[in-house]
Amino acid sequence: MKAFRWFVLLLATVLISVGCEEDGPSNPNDYVNAWILENMRFYYYWANEIPTAPANTLAPEPFFESLLSDEDRFSWIQENFQELLNSLRGVNKEAGYEYILYRDPNAPGNVVAQVLYVKPTSPASTTALKRGDMITKINGQTITEQNFRTLLSQIGEPHTVEYRPINIESGTFGQSVSLQLNTVEFAENPNFYHTVFTQYPNYKIGYFVYNLFSTGPTEGSTIYNAEMDQIFAGFKSAGITDLIVDLRFNSGGSETATRNLASLIGKNVTSSDIFVKRQYNAQLTQAIVNDPQLGPSFLEVKFIDKAQNVGNQLERVFILTGSRTASASELLINGLRPFMTVFLIGNQTVGKNVGSITLYEEDEPRNTWGMQPIVVKSFNKLNQSDYGNGFVPNRFDEDNRLHLFPLGDTRERLLGLALSEITGLAINGRHSGRDGVPQHAIATSLDTKPVCNQLIIDAEDGEALRKLLTRY
After folding, report:
1. Residue 16 C-alpha from the chain's centroid
2. Model's pTM, two decimal places?
3. Which of 245, 268, 449, 434 is nearest to 329 (CA)?
4. How far apart are CA 17 and CA 20, in angstroms?
5. More confident residue, 248 or 28
6. What 3-state class would DSSP assign to 115?
């Protein structure tokens, strides 16, 4: 009898176990992968290339990557969607400086991290660190070709650096200084610097350094756009005759911010003029056209009527570019070209004529992932989208020199080239010794930013697209 009862209990346990396995997922990634696949098949620009039977037993990140087209250089997925959203608004845990990496010309095998700029109100801004300073050690270790990735991964936390401060006037570097840097969740204001140069007869030249396309540090915020409007109101009241927009450190961001800047610059543009035309996959296009909340007008983005617009005061706009100038920056260039001459000075841009949206589930405990798939290709008013290999500047300059003047200093290399182009005067910058030879950049900190190379359909349009699948 005991043996019988034991057999019945064992059989019941087996049946319960089998029942639980049937009711629950056999793979902990099943829910997330099903969400990824459903959204990618609906939104992804290359949806017709997604495998018919993808390997859904993979973890979410490799599963997502297995769906991508060979043409896609830019889509990505991230495990924490809130961190993704923050980073796209320019909010990151950091000390507040950007840098470029070169091989040390004085020590083969070593690498130096030269400061490109320090962000106002950041922890770094309260120190003596400045543009041009040369960092040689992080947390006591010399930066080398073998360890630079490891060391640079540490600067999101409090860290020490040893750096050689630049002497602007002599073009030399001083003795090493040790510095402790703290980090915070920092919201970068993209409106970095602006001024009007009035020292050139017959010219009033506006100069605007804009380092990230972001409308504000939180969802729905437009504080940065409002500040941009004020800057251009100042340009307009000053009666500028020429405009230089510095985008060499700007690798992308919000379409809404891009539209705002374009509407402040464009010559004779109104809210009736097309800034960008959007091309989606065939299924998504049909869903947009048929949707009563979106409709065909959603496929076109028009300029905004701006009282602060300076376009009618300009014959052309000068844009300073770098090898990391991308995406939303390129959208600005392409969108303005049908309306005015856009003169580029600097390095060839990245070449990204496609854009993405942020997809996530806000209140679903089974899914914390957020993904940023390419969903749209951008064209200007003249149906031009031929910058997949980047824009080649009218005046080419790599701008990779160890001797860096402050941004806004008329001796600074790219700014000097633009001022020379406008005024016809000789460049008053100079490069001495090895500084006259462009260095080969290994990488920059801009490459590590999630917003790097991104054009993001955000704000109301992004939210409308994100909700479209639930209505389709």
Report:
1. 52
2. 0.90
3. 245
4. 5
5. 248
6. strand
In the beta sheet, which residues pair with residue 276?
301
Q: Which residue has the tokens 């000053």?
A: 238
* pLDDT tens for each residue of 133-160: 999 999 999 999 999 999 999 999 999 9
Cα torsion for 444, 447, 450, 452, to the nearest 10°? 110
Residue 262 phi/psi, 5-degree rounding, is -60, -35
Question: Which residue type is seen at 405?
Answer: F
In this structure, what are the phi and psi dihedrals at residue 200, rounded to the nearest 5 degrees? -100, 120
pLDDT surpasses 60 at 10: no
> Under DSSP, is residue 453 helix (H, G, I), strand (E, B) or coil?
coil
Among 457, 458, 361, 374, which Cα is nearest to 44's? Answer: 374
Angle at 394 between CA 392 and CA 396, to 5 degrees: 70
Higher pLDDT, 56 or 452: 56
Q: And the tokens for 237?
A: 């009241």
pLDDT band (50, 70, 90) for residue 79: very high
Kindly state the DSSP code that residue 147 receives in the 8-state scheme: T
Question: Which 3 state secondary structure label does DSSP give 244?
Answer: strand
Q: What's the start-to-end Cα distance of the chain, in Å?
A: 61
Which pLDDT score, from 0 to 100, does residue 224 have? 97
* Neighbouring C-beta atoms of residue 221, cutoff 10 Å: 15
- Decide if pLDDT at 465 tops 50: yes
Burial of 208 (0-12, 13-18, 19+ CB in 10 A): buried
Name residue 371's beta-bridge partners. 77, 359
Is the Cβ–Cβ distance between 39 and 359 less than 8 Å?
A: yes
Model confidence pLDDT, tens digit, residues 385-443: 999 999 999 999 998 888 899 999 999 999 999 999 999 988 664 443 344 456 788 98
Distances (CA, A) of 381 to 300, 355, 429, 457: 9, 17, 38, 18
Q: For the CA atoms of the chain, what is the radius of gyration?
A: 26
Question: What are the tokens at 374?
Answer: 């390419």
Interstrand relation of 97-103 and 441-444 (parallel, antiparallel or unpaired):
antiparallel
Q: What mean pLDDT is reported for the chain?
A: 90
The predicted pLDDT at position 451 comes to: 56
Residues 6+ apart with CB under 8 A from 350: 251, 323, 324, 325, 326, 327, 330, 390, 453
CA 207, 450, 257 angle in degrees (round to 5)?
A: 40
433 in the Ramachandran plot: left (φ > 0), alpha (ψ -120 to 50) or beta? left
Euclidean distance between CA atoms 268 and 245, whole angstroms:
18
Helical H runs in 24-124? 30-43, 60-66, 81-88
Give the residues across from 245 on adjacent strands.
208, 319
User: What does the alpha-carbon distance between residue 121 and residue 56 come to, in Å, rounded to a whole number?
Assistant: 46
